[in-house]
From TrEMBL, chain A:
GO terms for cellular component: RNA polymerase III complex. Pfam families: RNA_pol_3_Rpc31. It comes from Pinctada imbricata. Residues 161-170, 177-193 have a biased composition (Acidic residues). It is found in: Nucleus. This is DNA-directed RNA polymerase III subunit.
UniProtKB/TrEMBL annotation, chain B:
GO terms for cellular component: RNA polymerase III complex. DNA-dependent RNA polymerase catalyzes the transcription of DNA into RNA using the four ribonucleoside triphosphates as substrates. Specific core component of RNA polymerase III which synthesizes small RNAs, such as 5S rRNA and tRNAs. GO terms for molecular function: single-stranded DNA binding. It comes from the Eukaryota. It is found in: Nucleus. It comes from Pinctada imbricata. Residues 8-65 form the RNA polymerase III subunit RPC82-related helix-turn-helix domain. The keyword Plastid does not apply. This is DNA-directed RNA polymerase III subunit RPC3. Residues 196-218 are annotated as: Disordered. Residues 341-417 form the DNA-directed RNA polymerase III subunit RPC3 winged-helix domain. The keyword Cell inner membrane does not apply.
Length: 214, 528
């Protein structure tokens, strides 16, 4: 654009004054680096509003935050899978147990059906129906009495139970005569069936404890 | 849905519910309505966890679901309801000032749980109140008192029913969206029936019910959930802000008159209407509280002052009944927003810039030369300040060219302030500010977490020692485990965190004003 006019030297077509600076004035220097990340502010910010209501709301806010953190709604995933047993685990689990006291089960009547946790059904159930039943009938007569006693003990400690219907049905059925088939837990798959019955409720309690921790 | 706002939502979810919920929430915010399979594939969490997270989000009224045309159930998240979580303490405080402690606790319970049954909420609040009362030595209160407070809250529409689920072949597929207004606030008749544990119930159910309490109570209102009606609280806060503004501008009596106008029109106008229905002067006189000692003449004087005031809050719309007055919400919010933006300009650029800004607001379009003349500021300075504001987008330019070739020498450059644009920009800045404040607070806490935990443990040990009746020596020993420089550090961290918390609360006030203004502006343009 400069110098389009014929014959003249460096002249421009518009009034240079209008640009905001006259000829010969010092222009700001070239910019050699990006502007600073925290530029200095000319005016210091004024202090925050003070008042009773703000103090009260602050206290409310902090309480609310603590309540939300303790509530069963905060889903904390157990990211670190236990690779080795650590000494500090004992104290971490203790603390964890103290804080989350309440449990929350959503009311599935207002939620879509697909959100319900599915019951774990093992297909093995249908594979061997006959053989186990016979074996169990033989052993039942030996330990029916001890089972009844243990059943009573178990009834009182049922508040500690968390988890799916499987566990509860499990316990009930084991506590009773246990002629029906038991829905198998992950842990029990490997064990022999005779051993399973002897362990019976002790093992069930262990299962519950582990589920508590998880 | 701006980027910054999404980031704030993510932080809010993370703070309240944990990072897993935040991940799912932000995914739904970005991708829109999606079925569960899609969420599972992107979020890489286990199916059980995602289901639980969705349950939590639905419980807190942030996610809704409906069946789409292809037959899956799609989940939609509402960004607004996540942002409203910042205002929860405001709601609790309002409930306390209006209805008292019981109402405060009721609203707090409902906000913390999302949705609850009426019976549940009443029992738990009664329990909490009684605990506090007994601790301070006063007699315990009846549950019926709390129930009355709850009924009051429902009648004034602060608490509403959750929409009931749509059933199709006995499966929940969505929620009713066509509920009547009145239905939302109908109070069910609850009578607690004590049912003894039924022997005939199948073993599994019996076991489950035993987990709860020893005696089972089945309330009549099973399935009717209640939640807080945020819009109503917004209305209340908005009215409070306007009344405060009049109070500061004119007089306490004027603010009382305005408050009466609001109270009278509450029941008649739709909640988010552009302007309230007209209220006659006679009604106002009738409804004013007696302590003010305002008679007919004084009321008329005040009303004329308020209507003639430059803030334009109240308009006289008729002469029947001694004068009909109505409050135009759009104008009110416009004035309040202007005030907010003006204070931002003043704090950022100085009072001379504020003069130029106000000038532009008044005169709408001005050239640079005219600005220098009107503002009585030297040319160089005016130019500097103006261009500073222009670079930050508070002021905009329109070019009007004299000739067809748009040559710069033959073009008028006119400066103007577009309040709507500036309001949006300031709102974005507020979001950024609140995001920074939250982030800094979390960073401070995580940085000094070990130290703060140590102090907590020491306090716990001291408390237990005091309870067990230990000597002072032991207490001193424990206290000395925290060295003086550590104490200083802890004090400083606590002060910083408090300041950041406080600033979040106050930024949130500004966000409320700006968001309400933009809402009314949209309503206004839609009506035109």
């Amino acid at each position: 654009m400069a110098g389009r006019g014929r014959g003249r030297g460096r002249s421009v077509s518009f009034n240079v004054e209008a640009l905001g600076f006259g000829r010969g004035e010092a222009l700001p220097g070239p910019i050699q680096q990006p502007p600073p990340l925290f530029p200095t502010v000319e005016f210091h910010p004024i202090p925050l509003g003070q008042g009773d209501e703000y103090d009260y709301m602050l206290a409310l806010k902090q309480e609310f935050r603590v309540m939300m953190r303790k509530s069963p709604y905060s889903v904390t995933t157990n990211e670190k899978r236990k690779d080795i047993v650590r000494y500090s685990d004992k104290y971490r689990w203790q603390q964890g147990n103290v804080e989350t006291v309440e449990e929350w089960t959503p009311d599935y009547s207002i939620l879509p059906a697909e959100l319900k946790p599915k019951k774990v059904r093992r297909t093995k159930r249908s594979v061997k129906p006959n053989i186990p039943v016979k074996k169990r009938k033989v052993e039942d007569k030996d330990i029916t009495k001890t089972l009844e006693e243990l059943e009573k003990k178990e009834e009182t400690s049922k508040e500690d139970v968390e988890g799916e219907d499987d566990d509860e049905e499990d316990a009930e059925k084991k506590g009773e005569d246990g002629e029906e088939e038991i829905e198998e837990e992950d842990f029990e798959e490997e064990e022999a069936e005779e051993v399973r019955f002897e362990l019976s409720l002790e093992h069930v309690e262990n299962v519950f404890l582990v589920k508590n921790i998880l | 849905m701006s980027q910054v706002r999404n980031r704030v939502c993510r932080l809010i979810l993370q703070e309240n519910f944990g990072s897993a919920v935040a991940k799912v929430g932000i995914f739904l915010l970005e991708k829109g309505p999606s079925p569960i399979r899609y969420i599972l594939s992107e979020c890489h969490d286990s199916s059980e966890e995602v289901k639980k997270i969705l349950c939590v989000l639905i419980q807190h009224n942030m996610v809704t679901f409906e069946k789409n045309k292809k037959g899956f159930i799609e989940y939609t998240i509402d960004g607004e309801s996540i942002m409203y979580r910042l205002r929860f303490i405001r709601y609790i405080y309002c409930a306390k000032t209006l209805y008292g402690d019981a109402a405060e606790l009721l609203i707090e319970e409902l906000l913390q749980r999302g949705k609850m049954l009426m019976s549940e909420v009443i029992t738990s609040v009664t329990g909490r109140l009684n605990e506090a009362l007994e601790a301070s030595g006063k007699p315990a209160i009846q549950e019926s008192l709390v129930k009355d407070k709850f009924t009051n809250l429902v009648k004034s529409h602060f608490v509403q029913r959750c929409p009931s689920p749509l059933l199709k072949e006995n499966r929940v597929v969505g929620t009713e969206t066509t509920e009547n207004e009145e239905d939302l606030f109908k109070i069910p008749d609850i009578r607690k029936r004590k049912k003894s544990i039924n022997e005939d119930m199948p073993a599994a159910k019996r076991h489950k019910s035993e987990e709860g309490s020893s005696t089972q109570e089945k309330a009549d209102d099973d399935g009717i959930y209640w939640r807080v009606n945020c819009q109503r609280f917004h209305q209340l806060i908005r009215d409070q802000i306007i009344v405060e503004a009049i109070n500061k501008k004119i007089d306490m009596r004027a603010s009382e008159i305005l408050r009466t106008i609001f109270r009278l029109s509450e029941t008649r106008t739709a909640p988010m209407a552009l302007s309230t229905n007209a209220v006659s002067a006679a009604e106002i006189l009738h409804a004013l509280p007696k302590e003010l000692g305002v008679d007919r003449k004084l009321l008329d004087t005040y009303l004329s002052i308020i209507t003639d005031d430059s803030t334009d809050f109240v308009m006289k719309v008729g002469d029947s009944g001694g004068g009909m007055f109505s409050v135009n919400m759009y104008k009110c919010m416009l004035q309040l927003t202007k005030a907010h933006i003006e204070s931002v300009v003043q704090e950022r650029f100085g009072s001379k810039s504020l003069r130029i800004f106000r000038l532009l607001l008044l005169k709408k379009h001005l050239e640079q030369k005219q600005i220098e003349d009107f503002a009585m500021i030297s040319a160089k300075e005016a130019k500097e300040l103006l261009y500073m504001m222009f670079s930050q987008n508070f002021v905009s330019i329109t070019e009007i060219s004299k000739t067809a070739d748009h040559a710069p020498s033959r073009t008028y450059y006119i400066f103007t302030v577009d309040i709507h644009q500036v309001a949006r920009m300031v709102l974005e800045r507020c979001y950024k500010a609140i995001f920074n404040a939250m982030l800094k607070r979390i960073a401070e806490l995580t940085e000094h977490r070990r130290l703060l935990e140590k102090q907590e443990r020491c306090d716990a040990i001291i408390a237990s020692l005091v309870q067990g009746g230990a000597e002072d020596e032991q207490k001193e020993e424990i206290e000395q485990t925290i060295t003086p420089p550590e104490r200083e550090l802890i004090k400083r961290v606590k002060r910083t965190v408090q300041m950041l918390d406080q600033s979040e609360i106050q930024i949130e006030e500004a966000i409320f004003v700006l968001e309400t203004f933009l809402f009314y502006k949209r309503l206004n343009t839609a009506q035109k």
